[in-house]
Every structure is written in structure tokens, then in C-alpha cells.
Amino acid sequence: MKATQGIRLMLVDDEPHILQFLELGLMNEGFEVRTASDGLDAIGMVADFKPHVVILDVMMPGMDGFEVCRYLRAEETEISIIMLTAKDEVDDRVTGLSIGADDYMVKPFSFEELLARIQARLRNQFPGLLGEVRCGPFRIDGRRKEICHKDQVLELSPTEYELLQYLVINHGLVLSKPMILDKIWGYDFGGEENIVEVYIRSLREKLGDKEHRIIRTLRGVGYRVDLI
User: Fold this and answer.
1) Considering the domain boundaries, does residue 3 fall inside one?
2) With helix as H, strand as E and coil as C, how does 162-223 read?
3) Cα separation of 103 and 205, whole Å?
4) Mind listing the pLDDT tens digit for each residue in 118-148?
5) One domain, residues 53 and 162
6) Are residues 119 and 198 in the same domain?
7) Whole-model pTM?
8) What is the pLDDT of residues 102-121, one digit of tens each?
9) Which residues lie below 8 Å from residue 159, measured CB to CB, with a gap of 6+?
């Protein structure tokens, strides 16, 4: 069984040859794929199919990709959107990302690049779907809710698991305390921000990270995981 088994992708494009090419390629990779040739069809299909990732063309007759993206963001928060367009305009990219798209690709593009973008979105937003994710010395098993560091299973509480997974998946990026609180504890968390420091301290102890070389603190900014 492929790691992509059970992952649902929706393709929305008014060009039949592109739909057919991508559908065959992605099905061959093990994804479950549905296609729509216009925005209205896509919206009607989303509630039933519940895709994890939508690959969405911008330039379509009637309801364009921007309108579909706005709708999806308002109705389906647990979804990843990759927008496609023949336009290489900065304004279009800015518009797409500002209304909720997670990534943006300009036509023509290679199938390999699209596949890599899809995998990146899944690792970031749905890490448990891929089963096992490797990031340097870390191995994250989303199905078993288990993280190994240098082949050693870490004894983590559920919250520690979620926090370390978030940090590792976003390795190299600086994550602020507000970002961490919102992602791990929820936007309506009423406690103190120093709870993040408490959990970071605990993770460092379990990683043997006395010198803070794995989970780095950038004072006044946030935390960053380095894969060493």
C-alpha cells in the first residue's frame, strides 16, 4: 500500500488535457482524485468529497479560482489550496496568497514540482496522513503519534508531541510564541504565554539539548528547530 493511499485531491481546471494529465499522474501516485472543470462544479463537490488538497486554476469562465478560493477558506478551514495560473503577475500571486491560498504555481510547470508541492503541503498541514515523515535526525509517525530522535523513541505527552511535531515540520523557520499558542493551544487559550517556555524546556530535556542547539531561542522573536 502506498503512503498516499486515502489522501484526497481535487483538480479544478477548465482545460481538459491538463485535467486528464494530472488526474492520471496523481492517481498513479496513489492519491484519490476528483476533477471539476469549473468553479461551481468544484464547490458542489467539496462537501461530499472532502479533499485534503485542492489544485485550483485561476483563469476559468464564470466563477474564477479566486472566488472559489474565498469560498473554500470561508467554508472549509481544514483544506490546503495550491493555485495554478498561466499569468506570471506579482499582483495575482499576492491576491491568491492573501485570500487564503497556501501555495502558487505558474503554468507551465513540471509534474514533479507539483508533486513536491503537494507533499510539502501534506507534511505541513496533514502530517499524520503520510504515516512516517523524516526530517533530518527526526522521524515522525503520525499514525502512532510517535517521534524518534536519532532512532530513539521520545516519551512525550500529547501536547509535547504536537508541539515538537509543529517545530520539526517547520524546521528552519522562526515560530513566535503567539503562533505556537494559536496552533497548539488554540486561539481562545486563556492561559499565560510562558506555558510555551515550560514545554520547550521539557522538550529540550528529553532531547538532551542542554546547549539549545536543536531548539534555538531567538530572543524577542521565537523558536527555531535546527536539524543537527
Assistant:
1) no
2) HHHHHHHHCCCCCECHHHHHHHHHCCCCCCCCHHHHHHHHHHHHHHCCCCCCCEEEECCCEE
3) 36
4) 988 887 788 667 667 788 899 888 778 899 9
5) no
6) no
7) 0.61
8) 888 888 888 988 988 898 88
9) 184, 199
